[in-house]
Amino acid sequence: MKTFLVNLESHDDVTSARDRMSWSQSTRLVLVWPERGRILRRKLDLVLLQRYSQHQGCQMALVTQDQEVLANARELGIPVFTSTQAAQRQSWRRTRRRRLISFRRQAQHQSLKEMQGARSHPGLNRPFVARLLPFTIGVLAVLILVLFFLPGATISFSLPRMDQQLSLKVGASPEITSPNLSGGLPAHIVTWVVSGQDTIASTGKMELPDRSAHGQVRMVNLSDQEIDVPAGTVVLTAAQPMVRFRTIQAISIKPGVENAAIIQIWAVSPGSEGNVAENEIQAVEGQLGTKLAVNNPEPTSGGSDRITFTPSHEDERQLHQRLLDKLQESALKDLQAQLIEGQELIPASLELVKLIEEHREPMAGLPADRLTLTLSTEFSAWVVDDKDIQQVALSALDADLPVKYLGDSGTLKVIRTSEPEIQDMIARWEVLASRKIHLDWSQEAEVQGILGGRPGEVSRRLQENLGLIKPPRMILQPAWWPRLPFLAFRIRFEVE
């Protein structure tokens, strides 16, 4: 007779064993226990498997050395063999269950004959006990199934949580394209145009012409005719730089040295440069220059200068640097205000890209009490995303995670502990990453170990396995039920 073998594994339970048994197409089925592992040792497990095999229409036998399984099999009348070869060669004795089925079939056959006989003899009725027994068995079966499926349990507990902290160095650069495990972060370049004006008091000094020099010149007619000299005739010095003077009156000069004329003159330009020594004025400007000889017998005098303020080179330098500093500060504030949520600006990366426009008043070399400077500039800075920083921090925390622990989602915090410094085109700083972590546990593994257990034993087991600070809370349904359910889906965990 064909026999179907089911080799069980050390992790199998009733459900997985039934799945394996469902593939059987023969009337005999052998469950082979693994050499290692303690599985299906409860009597209830064998009862469920035996019922399932009967439902499949086949007889079940076991191949195992487990003494507890052997004892349960003997009580249930399940054949047990020492090897798969023996199970295939030897004959199987019928189980009590099969005898019970045979008895029932015989009883049903007899009862059918009795019913037929009752039709022939209406006066004959079935005994009361014969009618009560099937009803009682059915009621008990229903009660057993209800009691088996009815119990439920809710177990609530709080997993102990720990703080995980890690200090790490990060570096950002526009040359980095994506976050990496070494702490590298991609940086995005943003630009901003800002303009401003500033004024500074002039500290430089310069001389300005104030009053014009005046004096007299002696003119001699070199021609043989009388010469009319109009007012405003310009005479000048021969030495460089030439100083020009104007006559203030019109005269006529007759020929001859003895007819020389003395004329009053004023310097054309004010200032001390009009004070010239005697005999320095020696020429007449224009057509009269070839007909007249001129000189000043006495020095000219009265020309003076005044001292006034003018912007110096140091004033220009200080004002330029001060205004740039103000514009840089303004650009930093403006850029930070323009950031969207989740972005962080690196202040050390702020730099001047170009000077768009520069205007100063007054122009260089002109007198003024104050210097006004107007600048239009463009600045740039680096921006990093918080999500990239969190990704790097999370990777570092995961690499440093203790064994059998998991991180709590939503508890990650990253705090900057130092200011960024830029070196070799990389901004470097330190951050402190922290989060909550909890013990990693498997609900499937824990529920398999507490099926059908007493509440006190289950409480102690969970407290030891999960390291609970206080015992778990258990709610049984119904409350008077002494054990936890035998079915895993009737146990529900609530983790706080």
Write a short abstract of this structure:
By secondary structure, this protein is of the alpha+beta class.
Task: Write out key terms for the chains shown.
4 domains; 496 residues; six-stranded mixed β-sheet; six-stranded antiparallel β-sheet
Helix content: 25-40%
Structural class computed from helices and strand pairing: alpha+beta
- The number of helical runs is 10
For the residues shown, what is the average pLDDT?
87
User: What is the radius of gyration computed over CA atoms, rounded to a whole number of angstroms?
Assistant: 58 Å
Record field, number of beta strands = 26
Largest sheet at a glance?
A: 6 strands, mixed
Label the overall shape.
rod-shaped
Count of the domains = 4
- Oligomeric state of the chains present here: single chain
Distance between the termini: 56 Å
Low-confidence stretches: 95-125
Estimate what percentage of residues fall within beta strands.
35-45%
What topology emerges from the helices and strands here?
Layout: E1 3-7, H1 14-21, E2 28-32, H2 43-56, E3 59-63, H3 67-76, E4 80-81, H4 84-89, H5 96-120, H6 128-149, E5 152-157, E6 161-173, E7 184-186, E8 188-201, E9 204-211, E10 214-221, E11 227-229, E12 234-237, E13 244-247, E14 251-253, E15 261-267, E16 281-284, E17 292-295, E18 304-310, H7 313-338, E19 343-361, E20 370-385, H8 386-399, E21 405-407, E22 413-416, E23 421-423, E24 426-439, H9 443-450, H10 455-466, E25 473-477, E26 491-495
Parallel strand pairs: 1-2, 2-3, 3-4, 5-26, 6-7
Antiparallel strand pairs: 5-25, 6-24, 8-20, 9-18, 10-15, 10-17, 11-14, 12-13, 12-16, 13-15, 19-20, 21-24, 22-24, 23-24
